[in-house]
Amino acid sequence: MDEVQRKLSFDDLFEEKTIEFLNEFDQSMACFENLSNELLCDIFDYLDGYQLFQAFSNLNSRFEQLIHSSCVLIKTCFCIYQNNKVLNTFEQFIFSNRHQIFSIYLNFTLQNSYLFSWYLFDSSFDRLESLLFKVIQSNTLMPMLDNLSSLPHLSSLTIETYCVEEQINDIYQLIFILPKLKYYRISSFNHHRSIILPMAMNNQFSPVEYLVINRYCSLNELESLISYTPQLRCLTLHKTKTNGLNVTILSSTITLANLQSISLDLCQATFNELELFITKIFSNLKSLSIIGSRDITFLNAYRWKQLILNYFSQLEKLYLTYYDRMDNNNQYPIYTGRVNQFSSSFWIQ
């Protein structure tokens, strides 16, 4: 009997504590609408701008005022395709909220993408800092680039395309006059058309600090490009082609005092071409990443040591990857040296 009473007492106590806990939990729970404006702005920052407006526009006066306030910056992504309703919806949203837009990602799946209204981007987009154009065609890109110089705060531009090779020189010239651009990335997957730009003059400098090139480019072409970017901090080239036989080797030195990181995929370049290129750059380089192939000189530790000691005394990290083929039909020599030449005190200190 005592055991039954003790069990009942325990059950009553447990139920009482459970009810007390649930009451406290209910009181501590916060409705979404009870969150502070600061916290809501932080949450909105993770949402796509167009979806944000679809979800909260016309919900109530508080949210209506908040999503249109200056503390909410819009990041949005659109696929542009053959649908006038989608185009009209996008253009209306962009134009109506142009003073809040921070970044735009446009995927041009539309074949006749010239139908897209490039007049959208002008100085009224006074908070727009980042643009990404994917699968964009030249008949859309070139007029757009003409207008981008009017954007007062554009600092990041990414272009991914298949069909602008004929305009590649014009593209770079338009990019290098953008007054606030800090990050520029171009990806092109079709042709190997050469970049023909003269070395930059004193009044032609660009503020670009991060340059990423994902298209075929020779080291001589790259040298001409970086002459326009004296503020460069990080340089990445994903596809290197050979310099060619009729290319004039430039003897000038390029001063890039802020350059600390270089990453080069030398799939078609030799170590000698790399050496000619890299010794023309005066910088305080900290990190060098090289992918080499078809030239066993890349594995010559002594050549690397001399290059570092003579030109890059502040280098802290060297990342070297080398690819070789056992069945190359004697197209180039196979490495037959020591397994690891990079084992002296110079490399392991």
Task: Write a concise synopsis of the structure shown.
This protein has 349 residues and is of the alpha/beta class. The protein has helices at 2-28, 37-44, 49-56, 61-67, 84-96, 138-148, 168-175, 219-226, 271-278, 301-311, 345-348; strands spanning 74-80, 101-108, 130-134, 156-161, 183-188, 210-218, 234-241, 254-255, 261-266, 281-282, 287-293, 317-323.
Unreliable runs: none
Helical content class: 25-40%
For the biggest β-sheet, the strand order reads: 1-2-3-4-5-6-7-9-11-12
Number of helices: 11
Rg measurement, Å: 29 Å
Query: How many domain units?
Result: 3
User: How many E strands?
Assistant: 12
SS-derived structural category: alpha/beta
Strand content: 15-25%
Q: Mean pLDDT, nearest integer?
A: 83
Order of helices and strands: HHHHEHEEHEHEEHEEEHEEHEH
End-to-end C-alpha gap: 80 Å
Q: Main sheet, how many strands, which sense, barrel?
A: 10 strands, parallel
* Overall body shape: globular
What are the key terms here?
349 residues; alpha/beta; Leucine-rich repeat, LRR (right-handed beta-alpha superhelix); 3 domains; two-stranded parallel ribbon; globular; F-box domain-containing protein; LRR_dom_sf
